[in-house]
Amino acid sequence: MSGRSAATAPGSTGAGDLWLRRYRPVADPALRLVCLPHAGGGASAFLPFTHLLPDTVEVVAVQYPGRQDRRLEPFVDTVDGLVTHIAEALEPLLDRPVALFGHSLGSLVAFETARRLEKQVPGSSSAHLFVSGRVAPTVVQRTTTHLLSDDQLVAKLAELQGTDPRVLDDQEVLRLALPAIRNDYRAAATYTWRPGAPLACPITVLTGSEDPHVPADGARAWHRLTTGETAFHSFPGGHFYLTEHAEAVCRTIQAATGLVVQRPHLSSPPAAPVRPREYS
């Protein structure tokens, strides 16, 4: 363990809790949006959401151990293990509607967290589930990325275009980052789908139009996992379309949850809107 308490971790939610970050706490939120990062990612990946969503939304970003301010803590190398800790950390926040947003590995973790909360906390059905950059868990994806050599893993990261090239060229940074990335790929690879009751909440599926890892039929399969409505949106770009189109994604989140008042942007004029492509 790092010995650093949640009270000193930026954006932490309280003493003893290192799992959640609230970079812009909201006193009386209409909605809490819990964001779960991709393999190797950290809570700070969702910092832009705090500036793009309305003041009525409290963004709660999950921080997995083994990275950023938790870098000295041991990894959790299974999806189930992550879900156990995250569901426990979220219980005190269920006094307000909670929506879950996951990207890539985070989509699996978000889905299983929603299932866990419905099972363990009576009446705690999530307000909405947003799954990004991931086929439905019912679609089998065999992957051995976690078994690649360091050089091969770096090449894989370059292919996905979600890592700053300066990081890939910095051997010292890579030495620190690769163990977390490899661990998270292992968690995804060892995940096993277990049939169960469908969720009650709506699901919105978001993909990059050029993402080879999320074919349309795999994305559509999410609709079988809820009794609620399912919506599908495709944005220009690859697996990490989210980086470039965060503003458009946040508009999609607002529309899906009925929170349509955009926060004002004071630092620069608004960019031309990117309209997601819906598919059936």
Automatic annotation (TrEMBL):
- Establish whether keyword Hydrolase is in the entry: yes
- Give start-end ranges for the coiled-coil region(s): none
Q: Does the keyword Hydrolase apply?
A: yes
UniProt entry keywords in alphabetical sequence: Hydrolase
Q: Which residue intervals define the domain Thioesterase TesA-like in the entry?
A: 34-257
Molecular function GO terms recorded? hydrolase activity
Short name of one Pfam family: Thioesterase
Q: Which family is annotated?
A: Belongs to the thioesterase family.
Name of this chain's protein: Alpha/beta fold hydrolase
Q: Which organism is it from?
A: Streptomyces lancefieldiae
